Amino acid sequence: MKYNSYIKPFRTLYARITMWIMLTVLVVFIIITYLVTYFGAKGVLLGSTENAKSRMEITNQRINTVMHAVEVAVYNTIPEVELSLNKPDDMYRIVRRLLEINPYIVGSTVAFEPYYYKEKGEQFSPYAYRSVDNNIQTKQLGTSDYEYHYMDWYQIPKLLKKNYWSEPYYDRGGGEQMMTTFSHPLYDKKGNLYAIITADISLEWVSDLLRKSDIDFNNKALELNINSDAELQAELENDSDFFYHYAYSYIIGKGGTYIAHPMRERILNDTYFNHSMKYNDSIDNLIGYEMIDGKSGMRIINRDGTDFIVSYSPIERTGWSMATVIPNNLITNRSIKYATIIVGVMLFGLLVLFIICRSILKRATRPLALFAHSADNIAKGNLNASLPVIRTHDEMKQLHDSFAMMQTSLKQQIEELKTVNAQKGRIEGELKVASDIQMSMLPKIYPPYPDRQDIDIFGSLTPAKAVGGDLFDFYIRDEKLFFVIGDVSGKGVPASLVMAVSRTLFRIVSSHLEEPSGIMHQMNEALSDQNDSNMFVTLFIGSLDLRNGHLQYCNGGHDAPLLVNLKENTQQLLDCKSNLPVGVMPGFDFESQETDIDTDTLIFLYTDGLTEAENIQHQLFTEARIFEVTQQLLTDKPEVLSAQSVVERMARAVHQFVGDAEQSDDLTMLAIKRKNI
Amino acid sequence: MKRFFYTLLLSVIGTCSIQAQKQLVFTPTWTAQAQFAGFYVADALGFFKDEGLDVIIKHPSASNTSLNRLKSGESHYVALHLVSALDMIDKGDELINVMQCFQQSGEMIVSHKPLRGLKSLDRKRVGCFKSGISKLPIALARREKVNIEWIPFISHTNLYVSGAIDATLAMNYNEYYQLIMAGQRLKRNQIIYMRDIGCNVPEDGVYVTREYFTKHKAEIDKFVKASKRGWEYAISHPKETLDIVMLYMRQAGISGNEDAQKWMLKECLRLLVSPRTGKRTYKLEPEGLNQANSILLQGGEITKPITYKQITEP
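^ Those are the sequences you sent over. The predicted structure of the assembly is below.
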């Protein structure tokens, strides 16, 4: 019941067509959605990473601009240092001057080799720096607690003999800020190093730059809602969960030390590898290695089940490297957001399509139901059933016209049928009369001669159609039994007419002729005269002298009769000359024959309706079966065998043989038994 | 942990109230880190107080090293590397080893290029500690006639990472870990452990002046007893010990990395075990002393061998 009610909506044509359209559109829709989501995610990823790259390039340029300016400032100071080598204390003035004209430089020194000026001792490094109130102060940098000859900014450029940007460090000497130092080795004319000149710059602005860039990136590129610096800062410092929900950047130094990172406590305290080695993902370490090796790239790492896309590229001049980390779900979320809009629009479109489809199809197919109703009415006999009104000029209109035509045509045909049926009934009635007349021509009272003990006759004719073409007849004249059996060519009414003529001719002609051949000759002449329809009849005419059993007979193309001797229990076909059928050739000379029929002998005459009776397998009854039946009769009770019993027994046998097969020809049998008195 | 915090509280209160008792100053070899975990534990958990001692830990600075503090009398007990101590004794200072913490060497050489023994470093620049603890490899190289340009450093990482030096000396528990954390991908063939080339000499020990030794034998015994207890506690409670180390680092104004300190603690605790006996004796073993003597003497870092008696009970 539930199932039926479930499928019920799809019983109607418009519902099914709508369903198929919707299914097709849905499949296309799903494919489009998948493709849009897939390529959308790729596009968002590409856009985000390109954005990250360009941000890194901007940061790179900003840092480089500052560093380049520092380097130029230091180079410009070198000639002054060289000119003042004889006046070591002038170095204080020189480094102070460097700070004065370059506001972004927060400290500078010319640090000399040990005992370069013997009077200045092992350490001599005039140093200018900005105090807390931004005044420029000078002092000797090297102390027993700060042996600058062992500091990176001094040792590394000295050993490498080239410029060196130090790894960022935290200045605890007064500035309390992150700094980096540019060092340039100075050589005398002999090529011996005599000092390292430096310039310090603050790196606090790098973190600020990165933070602002991150906020911008999160807001614009990833469409995340970070409204203020303060909000982001709060996120950064208190919530490590931040890393799973926002994109962020960091910079690491050559040794992996964090120079800029959203979590400030990591800056200068931790290296990249302090953290990466805690994770199982070896890509994490690989990224760190590639970064400190100065390579660029983009890789995906997994931390705690979350994928992150990391883009990184080196910052020139420094050996530092910057990376931007974007949680993959931000990319996915964005593409899902776009996909959701598309899916929403498509779903709405689908709904509209469904409503329109359903409405149009319902309207278009509504007449079909009305046509079906009309057809039902017509089928029930209401030929005047009304048809739906169609205003369109399409297939439905054609259907309407066809229905209307069918209705009209049906009406006409039924009228014609009525007429035909009436005619047929009349013909059938006439045929019945004809059949009755035909049957009345045949002897139908048995025994025909109840007073005579010497003769026993029984005849039967079963026409294949209403009227038949077979005939038999007999009568006694002058103690002679004249009998005939015949078969007119063809069937039905034409044959029956010829049969009636033949029987009448037989009665007329035999009434004044004795010889069967003469009778046949006369009949032949009469029938063949003006025989335009080429009808003919096979006849066997006999004249049995009832006194002595002498039989004169003439065969006109008919089957030879069977003689059954009841005394001797023998049977045989009567010797017959074939001759031509009657009506074929006028003037034909029919040869007469004669024989003697003993008492207790039965003459069995039949038409080819017996021998050629067909069963379903198209087997014929044949003479052999006739012999079998008579043989059986002889075996049973030959002494009481009557003409009627032979005919009836033969009829039964042939009916049994034929079974359900349709009777194809008239079946006529005539049995004449000469009895012993 | 509760006991630890209570003790800390007590120690703060104690510092203010018990002025009458003589305060003993202990100075490790360097700034606060897990290398001195046993002493921090003894201090934090009141093991010194349990012995009736009022000990304060004061860290050295570049200009005021532990040895300087010992000589000036600012510190009564100092931690020193055996090699540094031998060097000082050779130069005439009278130092007495009262406790030997590290019985093994944690020193190693790390190179940019693969090494095939010390010879691979011939005519190379190798970073060495500016303090005296590098004297053993320097003596060894000299003995082996390997000509190395030694570059003294205070901090090795950037020097090594920048490529300014070809190789560097490192302590397995400290500098080595820093190099790994700086992204150095070190393979086994880039490393030579001093212990693998016949230099598995004892390292950190506690030293006092000869004068102090003769006058305060009872106090020394108590100090050593409390310190041993501190180290043993560190072995059985490494997690709690790490917390204590991090606390002392914060107090000293050093922003330490916990993972680095965890590594250092683990490696340092390993060095407490004698390679000869497999036990933690906390006593200088003559064999270790002789090995150090031999290398330093052959390398010309000391002029005459320092006898066991001379360094332990003059």
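Strands of chain B lie at 23-27, 54-57, 77-81, 95-100, 107-111, 124-129, 148-153, 167-171, 191-193, 204-209. Chain B is about 45% helix and 15% strand.

Shout if you want it in another format.
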